Amino acid sequence: MLRSVAELTRHLGHLIYPPACLICHGCGDGTTPFRHGLCIECHSAVTVDPHSACPRCAKTVGPYTNTANGCVECRGESFAFEQTIRLGLYDGKLRNAVLRMKSLDGEGLAELLGRAFAETRAAAIAAEKIDVVVPIPLHWWRKWTRGYNQSAAVAREIASELRVPFESRLLRRVRFTPQQAQPTRAARQQNVKGAFQVRRSANLTGRTVLLVDDVMTTGSTASEAARTLLAAGAERVVVAVLARR
Ligand SMILES: [Zn+2]
Ligand SMILES: [Zn+2]
Fold first, then answer.
1. Whole-angstrom Cα distance, residue 243 to residue 100?
2. Is 102 exposed, middle or buried (0-12, 13-18, 19+ CB in 10 A)?
3. Domain map (residue ranges) of the chain
4. How far is the CA of 67 from the centre of ligand 2 (A)?
5. What is the 244 CA–ligand 2 centroid distance (Å)?
6. Which ligand number lies closest to the CA of residue 56?
7. Quick one: fold of 50-244?
8. Which ligand is nearest to the CA of 72?
9. How many angstroms is it from 38 CA to the middle of ligand 1?
10. Which pTM value belongs to this model?
11. Contact at 8 Å (CB) between 110 and 80?
């Protein structure tokens, strides 16, 4: 079944042109297998994570690191989310793909990365018993200038694969937060404080939320969004990110 205009366009395109990989633009020789619009090399480059990651903040850690209480990066942080599931490190082809998603024609790429995420991280997500999928919202100004919210496109596909409700308007961004790097934890928390609001009619009581973002840098934004969801009654918040810096 066709789920979006972008998908319909791709299907029509395939009737005229051979499929081209959305990351490397290679179209192979007609015998090269494709998966979700990506050639097999690009699909495995963005979905196979060769590193170990901290289960709490998704930061890359050494293979023998004890992460029972988080890693050196997050042990002192009071994150409001419980865990973070990532597709990979913000590097190489995944970094390029995430950067390309931020252009107006990046929506198809965002959708297929969402599908690849749901498919390849299915066991980790299933273990969390997710009730609802919520994207980190963009401020209206940023959404207007970009044309769409890339995290919402990723989240919509994850929800569709998981067959759980997708709530794109449950969380609102009510304050524009500058994106410059904040040097200290206190400054980072202050920068995002009060940035989000939960819609008044939302019923989150006792629910486990999968909060979706494209990139995680320090975790401060996701933590503030998670804090807002918990304050509105959510039981737990688990974060899904495509790429962790
Ligand atoms: Zn490719
Ligand atoms: Zn950590």
1. 13
2. middle
3. 50-244
4. 7
5. 11
6. 2
7. Rossmann fold (3.40.50)
8. 2
9. 5
10. 0.90
11. no
